[in-house]
């Protein structure tokens, strides 16, 4: 683990040299391939040290972080072309990779909490420095305060765990029945806010609307997964409070249904994709709170699939925005006439968002349906509506943006660069290829 951490630390000085953009981009790509071949083939922890370690859960999410960060730099070429503090932007991306690597590689609750909160700092700077509207300051404060205020009770919970066990190691959480109801809520609330769960999701649409494409990609691709990862790590503590699960499952499923209806009324591309993330994460929370094998594996699968899919959709929204200067569906319509090749990628990623085969989303959602229906037959009613409206708002997104008469204010439009097509392919390919190796995401417990 340390060799990868040192490799990223030594990338920091390269951010500010003349060819730093392509050099750092290429090196992160190479490091992510090296990491790909360190897969832990046994069901347990490997590469262990006193602070860091890696098992199947953290391996997949670290790999996802590396991949999304490579694609972030590819998508943000406009920052490099305009020379708008491109060195500083690269510095924040590398800092974010280091923080995420340390978060997913931590083997203790306190170090996990420390890096979990630290990963917000580069993200907020990316939103504030390279966002689009003046309201980005408000969005950054929303993001910071929602997550910080929710995670302070978790810090108290970690100190309580340490006071009882004299350790915060993940390995020692099994079989301990010392946690009471108050500390149960303290421990999980921070994760529910960062996923985010319905009712505490208001920071997400504002952050996505104000963030640059790179900020949206890392937010949707990785930072929403920190909450799910945290819940999967502390689930030995949650088993004693299995009876509380119905609260979170009810809020998540009803909230997912209501958010799907909100998606049907959106006219802003980024806002629609952001709200769809809330609906998907609602099913993930429901799956984890059922506390069964299908739920854990399905939620992990859907987290990785959603990370790639929503990141790709934000890239597509940005490609339209760069040409039309607006993310409104009233203006960016009829794109099939202007950019026919790009419409193919709109369709492919929209199909993945609808959980069409052979995407990983399908595998994750089937597992979560099994999990939630086995938990309670009543949940089937809400899941029917969720599945239907998930397809409905994705079709609404695709048909309104691609079909119809294009906006009369558009006189000329680039068909798309090879960089953009490569970027979208690199989102789509792992999303559909890993279904062949389903054991990678389904056999880690």
UniProtKB/TrEMBL annotation:
<dbReference type="Pfam" id="PF00361">
    <property type="entry name" value="Proton_antipo_M"/>
</dbReference>
<feature type="domain" description="NADH:ubiquinone oxidoreductase chain 4 N-terminal">
    <location>
        <begin position="1"/>
        <end position="103"/>
    </location>
</feature>
<comment type="function">
    <text>Core subunit of the mitochondrial membrane respiratory chain NADH dehydrogenase (Complex I) which catalyzes electron transfer from NADH through the respiratory chain, using ubiquinone as an electron acceptor. Essential for the catalytic activity and assembly of complex I.</text>
</comment>
<feature type="transmembrane region" description="Helical">
    <location>
        <begin position="50"/>
        <end position="73"/>
    </location>
</feature>
<feature type="transmembrane region" description="Helical">
    <location>
        <begin position="333"/>
        <end position="356"/>
    </location>
</feature>
<keyword id="KW-0496">Mitochondrion</keyword>
<keyword id="KW-1278">Translocase</keyword>
<dbReference type="GO" id="GO:0003954">
    <property type="term" value="F:NADH dehydrogenase activity"/>
</dbReference>
<dbReference type="GO" id="GO:0048039">
    <property type="term" value="F:ubiquinone binding"/>
</dbReference>
<dbReference type="Pfam" id="PF01059">
    <property type="entry name" value="Oxidored_q5_N"/>
</dbReference>
<feature type="transmembrane region" description="Helical">
    <location>
        <begin position="139"/>
        <end position="162"/>
    </location>
</feature>
<dbReference type="GO" id="GO:0008137">
    <property type="term" value="F:NADH dehydrogenase (ubiquinone) activity"/>
</dbReference>
<feature type="transmembrane region" description="Helical">
    <location>
        <begin position="182"/>
        <end position="204"/>
    </location>
</feature>
<keyword id="KW-0520">NAD</keyword>
<feature type="transmembrane region" description="Helical">
    <location>
        <begin position="421"/>
        <end position="444"/>
    </location>
</feature>
<dbReference type="InterPro" id="IPR001750">
    <property type="entry name" value="ND/Mrp_TM"/>
</dbReference>
<keyword id="KW-0679">Respiratory chain</keyword>
<feature type="transmembrane region" description="Helical">
    <location>
        <begin position="376"/>
        <end position="400"/>
    </location>
</feature>
<keyword id="KW-0472">Membrane</keyword>
<keyword id="KW-0813">Transport</keyword>
<comment type="similarity">
    <text>Belongs to the complex I subunit 4 family.</text>
</comment>
<keyword id="KW-0812">Transmembrane</keyword>
<dbReference type="InterPro" id="IPR003918">
    <property type="entry name" value="NADH_UbQ_OxRdtase"/>
</dbReference>
<feature type="transmembrane region" description="Helical">
    <location>
        <begin position="300"/>
        <end position="321"/>
    </location>
</feature>
<dbReference type="GO" id="GO:0042773">
    <property type="term" value="P:ATP synthesis coupled electron transport"/>
</dbReference>
<dbReference type="GO" id="GO:0015990">
    <property type="term" value="P:electron transport coupled proton transport"/>
</dbReference>
<feature type="transmembrane region" description="Helical">
    <location>
        <begin position="216"/>
        <end position="235"/>
    </location>
</feature>
<feature type="transmembrane region" description="Helical">
    <location>
        <begin position="241"/>
        <end position="263"/>
    </location>
</feature>
<feature type="domain" description="NADH:quinone oxidoreductase/Mrp antiporter transmembrane">
    <location>
        <begin position="109"/>
        <end position="390"/>
    </location>
</feature>
<feature type="transmembrane region" description="Helical">
    <location>
        <begin position="112"/>
        <end position="132"/>
    </location>
</feature>
<dbReference type="GO" id="GO:0031966">
    <property type="term" value="C:mitochondrial membrane"/>
</dbReference>
<comment type="function">
    <text>Core subunit of the mitochondrial membrane respiratory chain NADH dehydrogenase (Complex I) that is believed to belong to the minimal assembly required for catalysis. Complex I functions in the transfer of electrons from NADH to the respiratory chain. The immediate electron acceptor for the enzyme is believed to be ubiquinone.</text>
</comment>
<feature type="transmembrane region" description="Helical">
    <location>
        <begin position="85"/>
        <end position="106"/>
    </location>
</feature>
<keyword id="KW-1133">Transmembrane helix</keyword>
<keyword id="KW-0249">Electron transport</keyword>
<keyword id="KW-0830">Ubiquinone</keyword>
<dbReference type="InterPro" id="IPR000260">
    <property type="entry name" value="NADH4_N"/>
</dbReference>
<feature type="transmembrane region" description="Helical">
    <location>
        <begin position="272"/>
        <end position="294"/>
    </location>
</feature>
<protein>
    <recommendedName>
        <fullName>NADH-ubiquinone oxidoreductase chain 4</fullName>
        <ecNumber>7.1.1.2</ecNumber>
    </recommendedName>
</protein>
């Amino acid at each position: 683990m340390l060799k990868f951490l040192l490799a990223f630390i030594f990338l920091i000085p390269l951010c500010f040299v003349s060819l730093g953009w392509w050099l750092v981009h290429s090196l992160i790509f190479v490091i992510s391939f090296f990491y790909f071949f360190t897969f832990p083939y046994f069901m347990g922890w490997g590469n262990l040290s006193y602070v860091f370690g890696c098992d199947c859960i953290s391996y997949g999410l670290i790999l996802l972080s590396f991949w999304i960060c490579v694609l972030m730099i590819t998508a943000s070429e406009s920052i490099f072309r305009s020379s708008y503090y491109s060195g500083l932007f690269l510095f924040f991306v590398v800092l974010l990779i280091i923080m995420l690597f340390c978060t997913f590689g931590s083997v203790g609750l306190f170090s996990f909490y420390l890096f979990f909160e630290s990963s917000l700092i580069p993200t907020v700077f990316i939103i504030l420095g390279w966002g689009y509207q003046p309201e980005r300051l408000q969005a950054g404060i929303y993001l910071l305060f929602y997550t910080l205020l929710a995670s302070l009770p978790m810090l108290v919970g970690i100190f309580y765990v340490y006071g009882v066990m004299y350790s915060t190691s993940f390995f020692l959480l099994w079989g301990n029945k010392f946690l009471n109801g108050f500390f149960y809520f303290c421990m999980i609330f921070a994760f529910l806010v960062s996923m985010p769960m319905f009712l505490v999701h208001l920071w997400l649409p504002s952050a996505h609307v104000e963030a640059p494409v790179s900020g949206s990609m890392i937010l949707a691709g990785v930072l929403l997964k920190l909450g799910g990862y945290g819940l999967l790590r502390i689930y030995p503590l949650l088993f004693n409070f299995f009876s509380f699960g119905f609260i979170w499952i009810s809020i998540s499923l009803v909230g997912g249904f209501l958010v799907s209806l909100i998606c049907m009324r959106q006219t802003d591309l980024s806002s629609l994709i952001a709200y769809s993330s809330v609906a998907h994460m609602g099913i993930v929370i429901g799956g984890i709170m059922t506390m069964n094998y299908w739920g854990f594996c399905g939620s992990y699968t859907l987290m990785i699939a959603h990370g790639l899919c929503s990141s790709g959709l934000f890239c597509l929204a940005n490609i339209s925005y760069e040409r039309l200067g607006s993310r409104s569906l009233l203006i960016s319509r009829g794109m099939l006439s202007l950019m026919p090749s790009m419409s193919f990628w709109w369709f492919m990623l929209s199909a993945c968002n609808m959980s069409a085969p052979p995407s990983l989303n399908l595998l994750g959602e089937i597992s979560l349906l099994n999990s939630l229906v086995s938990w309670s037959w009543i949940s089937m009613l809400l899941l029917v509506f969720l599945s239907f409206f998930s397809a409905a708002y994705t079709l609404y997104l695709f048909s309104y943006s691609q079909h119809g008469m294009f906006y009369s204010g558009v006189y000329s439009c680039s068909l798309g660069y090879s960089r953009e097509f490569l970027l979208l392919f690199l989102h789509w390919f792992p999303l559909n290829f890993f279904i062949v190796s389903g054991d990678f995401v389904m056999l880690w417990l």
